[in-house]
Design a protein that fits this description.
The complex is a heterodimer of chains A (413) and B (188). Chain A contains 16 helices and nine strands. Chain A has helices spanning 18-36, 42-47, 55-77, 92-109, 113-121, 125-144, 149-152, 162-166, 170-195, 206-224, 229-245, 253-260, 275-280, 294-302, 319-330, 342-350; strands at residues 90-91, 156-158, 250-251, 266-271, 286-288, 309-314, 336-339, 358-359, 371-372. Chain A has a five-stranded parallel beta sheet with strand order 3-7-6-4-5. In chain A, strand 4 (266-271), helix 13 and strand 5 (286-288) form a beta-alpha-beta unit. The radius of gyration of chain A is 27 Å and the shape is elongated. With 188 residues, chain B is an all-alpha fold. Chain B has two domains: 23-114, no CATH class; 118-188, no CATH class. Helix content of chain B is 65%, strand content 0%. The longest helix of chain B has 21 residues, at 125-145. Chain B is globular. Classes of the chains: A alpha/beta (413), B mainly alpha (188).
């Protein structure tokens, strides 16, 4: 099982106060390197936009490609579970407009928020004024967001990566980004030669070695490839099969009904049976998902609030649901359970009094629907949405909610 | 002449702040170091780097102290500090605070902690400071609209290959280059 990210950081930070110190150290290193690179100096930053000194481009893209190859390499060799890494979600339109506004602010003020912090720390008065302005801007946004809330939530694509946009494998995108960055570095140096009168002969030759190392690492990411669902399942199969066998993850119909009635929970129901069965009868809030489509659903499930979300998969009995459960476990979705006995047991429990639903005379075989229906009425049966208040069933509680931390903390950046 | 035992160098605050100013490191080295810091952040904690989010939480904390009722009525602030929530209980706060100390430490070691105003040669201090404040306000407003600034979106989203972050990174550079000509007197 991948050891990173560390377990403590998946929980609310207050459970392990030392985690704040780790973030403090990361911030310290962040500020230290920004200052070392000259990012506390507004003249150095603004020179980027007059082609005199492309330090901003070199440091930014240098950092992006370095972190990118190391991250995807860690994922490739199996020490990092990339599904648990926070990827900023895409809200396209506010992102684009906000980006342009940031660009204006950058060239007017000479900093971005992070660099103004280190500038202030080194007593640059213009940096301190920028930082004050930034606090005011943040305050102003909080007070005015309500006037364009619809726009602020527009263009939502969730956890969308460049791999999804271009339909390319991760390794190919990583390599292309590295090559693009190297091309931009080359172009940047030419601009510095022309506009900044820089003598490129005095640049360290070591930078060619660095470029070569980046390409090699990117090639390694490409060759090794990212772990697929089968690889990920293989890493956790032992523990998870034990939980299946001990029936720790199969919840009784009574527990599912109680969970549906719990307003504090966000219960996601996935019905993995055939579409025909689903149309004949399904639980009211269940979505139909073919087994083959489960992997495509993973990005959506990853952005559900993990601390309060319980995902329950169901088939007619349990075979297909168990398969779906394995797939979701492999993708690190938290709090996934199987409906014990499937839809058949659900109907046996809640549909006994319904005249239209009749059991088949002959047992239908494993994971087949054991009832007949007069028409494809879907969820229009009482048994599709029994009232949690009318039914008080005894059950052995199996749901143990892993109260995970929401990585964005409600305000990323 | 008496030869005293070599005096132990005493702590001298003035000397600490007047160390010779060293040049900045090479940008590629800076980029590689920053990349390693960001990689370690993601690897250990699942979160990358950030700045404007932490600022947001400090502002929300002040607002929460001054008028908690107002927070509870503003949807955007409610998420950060509504009810019993402590707006400072978030990873972005120690990262931002750490960055202040890290910047100071590097500045001190390299002799760059010096009260000064960096600006172009043809602009007055007053104009520079007004532009710095307005630029900060504009930048931060845009950063919250985009749900992250150059750190949280461009760097962290860029490294994780978030499509939206790449699009907005292009917009940051586009916006800055588009306006650069018109404010060139401030810098050149």
């Amino acid at each position: 099982m991948p050891i990173f990210p560390l377990q403590a950081f998946l929980l609310p930070l207050s459970q392990n106060p030392w985690t704040y110190a780790v973030f403090g150290l990361i911030g310290f290193a962040f500020g230290f390197v920004l200052e070392l690179s000259g990012f506390g100096n507004s003249k150095k930053l603004s020179a980027q936009f007059y082609f005199r000194d492309l330090t901003v481009l070199k440091v930014m893209f240098g950092a992006i490609v370095t972190a990118m190859v190391l991250l995807y390499l860690s994922s490739a060799v199996g020490i990092l579970d990339f599904n648990l890494v926070y990827i900023p979600e895409t809200y396209l339109w506010p992102g684009l407009l906000g980006g342009v506004i940031m660009g204006f602010g950058f060239i007017i003020g000479g900093f971005c928020p992070g660099t103004s912090v280190v500038s202030t720390a080194t007593l640059k008065i213009d940096g301190a004024l920028f930082l004050l302005g930034a606090f005011f801007g943040v305050f102003a946004f909080g007070e005015t967001e309500k006037y364009f809330d619809g726009f602020w939530h527009s263009g939502y694509y969730g956890r969308l990566t460049l791999m999804d946009v271009f339909h390319l494998p991760t390794g190919v995108v990583v390599l292309l980004v590295v090559l693009m960055a190297l091309f931009m570095f080359w172009g940047g140096e030419q601009l510095e030669r022309i506009f900044g009168k820089r003598d490129l002969k005095r640049e360290p030759r070591l930078r060619y070695a660095g470029a070569g190392a980046l390409v090699l690492l990117a090639l390694a990411v490409l060759v090794i490839g990212q772990p697929d669902a089968a690889d990920k399942w293989a890493r956790i199969a032992g523990a998870k099969n034990a939980a299946l066998a001990a029936r720790e993850v199969q919840i009784e119909p009574g527990e599912l009904l109680a969970s549906l009635g719990d307003d504090a929970l966000n219960v996601v129901l996935l019905d993995v049976r055939s579409e025909a069965d689903y149309n004949l009868f399904h639980l009211e809030s269940a979505s139909h998902v073919a087994l083959d489509d489960i992997p495509g659903l993973v990005p959506t499930l990853l952005r559900e609030p993990a601390a309060v979300t319980v995902t329950v998969v169901m088939s007619n009995d349990e075979a297909a649901a168990t398969e779906a459960w394995r797939m979701l476990q492999a993708q690190s979705i938290a709090n996934v359970y199987i409906l014990e006995g499937g839809v058949n047991k659900w109907i046996r429990t809640f549909g006994a009094g319904e005249a239209d639903i009749a059991p088949l005379a002959v047992a239908p075989g494993s994971d087949r629907l054991a009832y007949t229906f007069p028409a494809a009425l879907g969820a229009r049966y009482e048994a599709a949405a029994p009232s949690p208040r009318e039914w008080e069933l005894e059950f052995t509680p199996r749901i143990k909610l892993e109260r995970k931390r929401s990585p964005s903390g409600g305000g990323c950046g | 002449m008496t030869t005293a035992a070599p005096a132990r160098p005493r702590f001298n605050l003035r000397a600490l702040f007047s160390r010779p100013e060293k040049p900045y490191i090479h940008p590629y080295l800076g980029g590689a170091l920053l990349g390693v810091v960001m990689f370690l952040a993601f690897l250990i904690t699942r979160n990358g780097l950030g700045a404007s989010g932490g600022m947001n939480r400090y502002v929300a904390a002040v607002q929460d102290a001054v008028s908690p009722g107002h927070i509870d009525q503003t949807p955007y602030l409610l998420k950060l500090a509504g009810g019993e929530k402590n707006p400072l209980d978030d990873w972005s706060v120690p990262v931002l605070t750490g960055a202040l100390f890290g910047g100071f430490a590097s500045g001190l070691i390299n002799g760059r902690v010096k009260a000064e105003i960096n600006k172009g040669p043809h602009v007055s201090n007053r104009t520079r400071l007004i532009m710095a404040f307005s630029g900060g306000a504009i930048m931060a407003y845009g950063a919250r609209m985009a749900r992250g600034c150059t750190s949280g979106q461009a760097l962290s989203g860029g490294a994780t290959l978030s499509a939206g972050s790449w699009a907005l990174m292009m917009c940051i550079f586009g916006g800055a280059y588009a306006l650069a000509y018109f404010v060139r007197k401030a810098w050149l």
